[in-house]
Write a structure and sequence with these properties.
Layout lengths: L10 H9 L5 H12 L14 H10 L6 E7 L5 E6 L5 E9 L2 E5 L3 E2 L17 E2 L2 H18 L5 E6 L9 H12 L11 E5 L3 H10 L4 E5 L5 H7 L2 H4 L2 H15 L3 E7 L7 H11 L6 E7 L14 H13 L3 E4 L13 H7 L2 H4 L4
Parallel strand pairs: 4-7, 7-8, 8-9, 9-10, 10-11, 11-12
Antiparallel strand pairs: 1-2, 2-3, 3-4, 5-6
The structure holds iron/sulfur cluster (SF4).
Length: 359
């Protein structure tokens, strides 16, 4: 059972794959509808699809490669899922409820090599990239969970901010984005999708060149190299003087807005002088940039970091505002569960019976 997930194929790829085997385009569309609109659990369930086509698909692909290992539900409706992959690895996916809809945060890699010093995910080095199908399947799993609840709810937004650096898995990310945005399938509008990067400058440029109207968020987290290197070791390889020109290239090329993520760590990067320095750094981009302040969620694994005082958060916010910078403070989701990215997985991976791959 090592066939790839069928969710990794874009509609064009499915049409081409079936055409090479003598099946019409309309059949590919029929299969597509079964996958994404009727959300069938196995190929045999595609009851009105030609039997030869069903057998062919069954021989070469699988619909489900993941099983639910654990689920935590928060009082605010946030649900954190741990899915087990076929190779035994665990990945995290989170469903969040907002006023504007339901968003799912997906994982793109098993572990992460970027090594942000505040992040529970970064504690476990990357062992492999997820395929486009494995990323898309997370959304299908969550959508099936919603289907079963019977409230007629639909995933409307996707954030690629889970475990991993999405731009370090660029080709699979691009296929994934095409799959979920396809208007005949899940039809998640590109403007409802946000990809978050730690700041891989070359890939920011490549992403701009694709002209995909998907939102981009860049993790800045500090206004100068000394502090940013302390928080994110990737800054050694890609310092601010390399990152900012890539951001400028993106803004110029796409004319789209960008979000700059800034995690607030008490007495590390949350002082008014840091806000002033940040305002100066991004002053020329202020029309197209929004700073998203993220109050830190303490995790056991990183006891050196604490959450900023509320007064410090507000002082930081007010300073940016006064400098004419667009700024928001991220609302918390799932504060009563293992809310920080990678926290649930990290805890589970530390349990010997959960950590050992099964295949
Ligand atoms: S914050 Fe994102 S990029 Fe940084 S270590 Fe964690 S998962 Fe990787």
């Amino acid at each position: 059972m090592n066939q790839p997930s069928i969710y990794g194929l874009t509609l064009d790829q499915l049409v081409a794959w079936l055409a090479e085997r003598g099946h019409k385009k309309s059949r590919a569309h029929q299969v597509w509808e079964w996958l994404y609109r009727k959300r069938v659990g196995d190929f045999a369930g595609m009851t009105d699809v030609n039997a030869d086509c069903v057998a062919l698909l069954d021989e070469h692909f699988v619909i489900r490669t993941q099983t639910e290992h654990l689920r935590q539900e928060s009082a605010d409706g946030t649900i954190k899922f741990l899915f087990r992959l076929r190779d035994g690895n665990l990945i995290e996916t989170v469903l969040m409820r907002h006023k504007y809809g339901l968003s799912v945060c997906v994982t793109t890699q098993v572990g992460c090599n970027i090594g942000c010093s505040f992040c529970a995910s970064g504690l476990i080095a990357k062992s492999r990239d997820l395929s486009a199908g494995e990323i898309a399947e997370q959304i299908m799993n969550v959508q099936r969970h919603l289907d079963q609840a019977g409230q007629d709810e639909k995933v409307s937004h996707v954030v690629v901010m889970g475990i991993g650096e999405p731009f370090d898995n660029f080709a699979n990310l691009m296929d994934f984005l095409q799959v979920i945005a396809d208007h005949k399938g899940l039809a998640i509008g590109p403007r409802h999708i946000t990809v978050s990067t730690s700041g891989l400058a070359d890939k920011i440029r490549a992403f701009a060149d694709t002209q995909l109207p998907v939102n981009l968020a860049v993790s800045l987290h500090a206004p100068n190299n000394e502090l940013r290197t302390r928080i994110m070791k990737i800054n050694r390889a890609i310092p601010i003087e390399k990152l900012m020109p890539a951001i400028d290239y993106y803004l110029e090329k796409t004319k789209r807005r960008i979000t700059l993520e800034y995690i607030l760590l008490r007495d590390v990067n949350d002082r008014v002088e840091h806000a002033m320095e940040l305002a100066e750094l991004i002053a020329d981009r202020r029309k197209l940039a929004t700073v998203n302040l993220i109050p830190y969620n303490p995790v056991d694994e990183h006891s050196q970091y604490q959450r900023s005082e509320q007064a410090a958060i507000m002082a930081f916010y007010d300073t940016l505002k006064k400098q004419g910078i667009n700024v928001s403070v991220r609302l918390e989701h799932g504060a009563d569960i293992d809310a920080a990215c990678g926290q649930l997985r990290s805890k589970q991976m530390n349990r010997p019976e959960a950590a050992s791959p099964t295949a």
